[in-house]
Design goal:
With about 375 residues, the chain is mostly helical. It has a single domain, classed as Up-down Bundle (Growth Hormone, Chain: A), CATH 1.20.1250. About 80% of the residues lie in helices and about 0% in strands. It is built from 18 helices and no strands. Helix 5 packs antiparallel against helix 6 and helix 13 packs antiparallel against helix 14. The longest helix has about 45 residues.
Length: about 375
């Protein structure tokens, strides 16, 4: 593995570690702040609003200055995020800290995906799925161990541990990142949305693909704890189980995509994810629900990486511009839709909601032909 590929993979791992560390905090925050699902949903909404507010700014910065500069800035701004959430004393201060967390994390997400596209182009080989595999591996560590550390050391202890690991990883990865040049027509170009409909159509695919992942990230622990009676140390494994299988399939995803093509891979993935969500929704126990989330992770794994590779290789468009549109739309699914789930959960069971989300994956299944651009990016040198 080249140093540039290892460095961008490390960024995905660190980002996933931070997001995974957030997942088991939601039931802990509900207990500390004395709030129900609807107010917890508002916190999740703040996370999403922060991300979609900042993502376009870092998309523009990526196009104008290169992804290396953008991701370096965003990553260091993201590093202490869980500490600010831990130190915030009340609901609205926590909401503000979560908003900042979402903003810096979203900016890092756009920039590191653009850097992965740049490495793909320099190597003329697909690496996006494996990069997201490292993100999922980080999610497994952050979510699986996060609940245990929360019980042993509390929110502040967990925040300190995650921040220390994150900062150490950045010190190693930063100097090794690929230094990609800015897009040639971008430094003086005004900030505007692309005229082509393709990134927006891919954004719809990404949106439908990411909503189920967001529902597992933010609500699996609540589902297992409140509806299944699992302890907090077990509840964190709802998302961890999903992230674990996502990691395995994402590490295999580049090879699968190169062998079977992005379109066929997306179709099979969508059908598998639908099956896993159905198992989780009908589950009679926490163990079966975790198994369902793990099966869903197999399917979810390569939906977003394929959409991102397609967006980063659209003809006549700077990678940062197409990626910012698809990332913003896709991550509004993982960040904004779970807020609505918080309100729905007071009227419907989370199990019923997971069943409904299985049907949403008919969208990427029906629009899978749009993924063909990812095959061009994978197999053709720039």
């Amino acid at each position: 593995m080249s140093s540039e590929r290892a460095a961008v993979s490390a960024l995905f791992l660190l980002n996933g570690l931070l997001v995974g560390g957030w997942s088991p905090r939601i039931p802990a925050l509900m207990e500390r702040l004395g709030i129900a699902e609807s107010r917890a949903g508002l916190l999740v909404l703040c996370l999403g609003l922060g991300s979609i507010t900042v993502m376009p700014l870092f998309g523009a910065m990526t196009a104008r200055a290169g992804s290396r500069s953008a991701v370096w800035l965003a990553a260091w701004l993201t590093a202490p995020s869980l500490l600010w959430i831990s130190l915030a004393p009340g609901f609205w201060s926590v909401a503000a800290a979560v908003f900042l967390f979402g903003g810096t994390m979203g900016g890092m997400d756009v920039a590191m995906n653009a850097n992965a596209v740049a490495v793909e182009r320099s190597r003329a080989r697909a690496i996006m799925s494996s990069c997201h595999g490292f993100w999922s591996l980080g999610g497994v560590i952050g979510a699986g161990l996060g609940g245990i550390v929360l019980e042993l050391a509390g929110e502040l202890g967990q925040g300190l541990a995650v921040t220390a690991v994150f900062a150490a990883g950045l010190v190693w990865a930063g100097p090794r990142l690929l230094r990609d040049p800015p897009a040639p027509d971008q430094p003086r170009a005004p900030l505007r949305l692309p005229r082509s409909p393709l990134p927006f159509l891919l954004g719809i695919v990404a949106l439908a693909s990411m909503i189920p992942e967001g529902a597992i990230l933010d609500w699996a622990a609540v589902y297992l704890q409140k509806e299944m009676g699992a302890p907090l140390s077990v509840a964190g494994w709802g998302f961890a189980g999903c992230a674990a299988t996502m990691a395995v399939l994402r590490f295999a995803g580049d090879g699968l995509r190169n062998r079977f093509g992005a379109v066929r891979t997306m179709r099979i993935s969508a059908l598998t994810a639908m099956s896993g969500l159905a198992v989780a929704g009908f589950a009679p126990s926490a163990g079966v629900a975790i198994a369902g989330f793990a099966l869903a992770g197999i399917g979810i794994a390569n939906l977003m990486p394929i959409a991102l590779s397609a967006a980063g290789n659209l003809p006549g468009m700077a990678a940062g511009v197409g990626l910012s549109v698809v990332t913003m739309m896709g991550y509004s699914g993982i960040l904004l839709a779970p807020a609505a789930i918080g309100w729905l959960a007071e009227s419907f069971s989370l199990g019923a909601i997971y069943l409904g989300l299985a049907l949403l994956l008919l969208v990427p299944l029906a629009m899978s032909r749009l993924a063909a651009a990812a095959d061009f990016g994978s197999d053709t040198a720039p």
